[in-house]
Design goal:
With 131 residues, the protein is α+β, with helices and mostly antiparallel strands. The chain has one domain: Trna Endonuclease, Chain: A, domain 1. Helix content is 35%, strand content 27%. The protein contains 3 helices and 7 strands, in the order H-H-E-E-E-E-E-H-E-E. Helix 3 links the parallel strand 5 and strand 6. The protein starts with 14 loop residues before the first helix and ends with a strand. The relative contact order is 0.22.
Length: 131
């Protein structure tokens, strides 16, 4: 499981889309500034991505099964272009729980890439989680 930016000599999974998402998140943070609620950044990011012609599903629901019985529903913040999970955070720093959550999300959804976005500081922090 890779949780950092991959070696630049290797093609990154969904590289162009990732760059667009990260760029949009930087724009959102530059305009809104740090210190707001996660949901506000999420909503602004949706607006910006949609304005760029990028398909975004907010709060898409995925059923979760255990031994063929439905046990609940997983609801990621955003699914972009049906390929990338984006999870907005306002935290001091990412920790193992955040990464583990994204690994679980990737496992349930069958997607291969998640981007954690941290809007806590003046400079956007992000982390790629690849399954």
């Amino acid at each position: 499981m890779n949780t950092d930016r991959e070696n630049t000599s290797v093609t990154m999974l969904h590289e162009d889309l990732s760059k667009e998402i990260i760029g949009a998140a930087m724009t959102v943070l530059n305009e809104l500034k740090p210190g707001l609620d996660e949901k506000l950044y999420e909503n602004a990011l949706v607006i910006l991505l949609l304005e760029s012609g990028i398909k975004v599903e907010q709060q898409r629901q995925y059923p979760v099964y255990f031994r063929k019985q439905k046990i609940g529903t997983l609801i990621p913040d955003l699914v972009v272009e049906g390929q990338v999970i984006v999870d907005t955070k306002v935290v001091t720093d990412f920790n193992q729980a955040h990464i583990s959550q994204m690994i679980g999300y990737l496992s349930i959804t069958g997607l291969k890439l998640a981007l954690l976005m941290n809007f806590k500081h003046a400079q956007l922090q992000w982390k790629r989680v690849v399954r």
